[in-house]
Design a protein that fits this description.
625 residues
Length: 625
Amino acid sequence: MKRSLLFCAACALLSAAEPRDLVRQVDGYEFGSDPAAVRELETLAFHTAGDPGAPALEKLLLEGLQSARTMAAKDALCRDLAYVGSDAAVPQLAQMLGEPDTAEMARYALERIAGARARAALRGALARTSPPVQTGMVVSLGRLRDEASVGTIKPLLASKDARMAGAAADALGHIGNAASLDALLAAPPSPAVSGALLQIAERSDAQAAAGIYRRLNSAGQSEAVQVAALKGWTRVDAKQAAPSLHAALKSGSVRLQGIAVRELARPEGVALAKEIPSVPELARVQIIAALTDSGKPDVRPVLVEGVASESEAVRVASLDGLAKLGTAANIAMLASRAASATGDEQAAARAALGGIRGVAADAAILQSLPTAEPKTKVELIRAVGARGIASASDVLLSAASDSNRAVRVESVRALRETAASRQVPALLALLVKAASDNERKEFERTVAAAISRSPGSPVTGVIKAYRDASDASVRMSLLDVMSAAGNSEALPVVRQALQDPNADIQRSALNALSGWPTPAPMDDLLALARSAGDPARPILALRGYIKLVQIPSNRTAAETAGLLKTAMAIATRPEEKRAILAVAQKVVCPESLDLARSAVNDPQVAAEAQLAVTTLQRLLIYVKN
């Protein structure tokens, strides 16, 4: 509403101004001087265009043009005539076309006045001028699509001035009549001529356009022109263009190959595959991708054949296709390929094993597992995990005891995605018997994942296994499982482990509390942070406490800031103090700001404290607002 009122006010001021006075003020205007009158007159001309008052303003502008004392004034008045000029302005503007200093400004006005008289004036002046003025007139006649000027423009196609020759070609392309087409077809080949012919083809009927596109789809043309011509030709007459599309498949141009594949894949479908042996590698890849995108089942044999290609790129493209179109019948081949290949090809085979949908594919994987050789078995097991085949858990448990280490490890990893509480006892038994620390670590993660997927995260079996175990490494692993599960039922066991005679178990218990997924052990960690004895224990406990403070809870920000204040009072090293200040900046409340201010005088963390103060002050402003 406000903008509308301002606009109305401006119009009222303009209407109050005397046009004659404005023209008189513009009369002596020089570039670089105050342009206020020039702008006001131009605005008046813009708003008067098409109104009943336009002829009167046009007359005043022509009078001003006649008496103008500077080139800047004439230029300004010609720009105004472009808005309100009519046939009445043509004679005076036509005279200006003959003068190099005023030709360009007159051309500008005449092009926008348009009409038969304006076109005739530009056409008549064309032969009497020379570049660059002549070039501009050719451009204007092209924009005006002046058919009568074709005969005059045609000889300019052979101009030694490249800009003139280009302007002539472009103008004939805009005009686009039969005479223009003949002139361009007879002209020496050039990018400008080709571009003009493409312009005409776009506006021609199908038969005429096909003829132009056929001519432009030749080796003498640039790649860009050939691509545009082939696309246009296919659009207007796909059947006639088909031989050229097949020829483009065998060309060295990636862009032409791409056009050909895209345009041929739709009408020919899987029949296009017959070109694969005879085209360049990239074209083969493009054909396979296009056929895959069709989604048709009859493409599948082409993909299977492509997997055996001597070209890695073709093999990868075919495997990518089988990820979308493959069936259970392809599972064994894909597993074998994944086992024997490397790099991108192996990744594609694995993706295909995981990508083929349906219970039949799941069944084929499980059926192949028992008799597969170790490398293939590893890939099948990997696929089980990727697909999340819950029914495979018992098969995987059996494979987790395989004599081949790679099979065992991959089975445990796959169980991480499929196992549930029912498999936990067997997994715990395997953890206890693990042949190495690395394998035991894999079992830790898998047991924790299985427990987490079970209602209530039951840890009774884990606690029993811990108490029954005599091996320190096993007990340490089971403490890690309890920590990951986060069941409070296990906390008394972890607390008891803090008093174990074995220092490694004590450290594992402390790490278990620090990694707990809920804030439940915070008081335990705080007590440890205040304890004496082993100097490392308070430091590790305080770090764990700071970590658990950040776990989302139903505490208020002020309460969390109070916990951080407690931690700061215990901290003796700059590392922990910095960590506390970093957390405080995320807990936006006045209490956090007070904590940061209290640390400003601490030489160990003065800079960090000041940064925290600045940050919290800024954030608190937003909170208050």
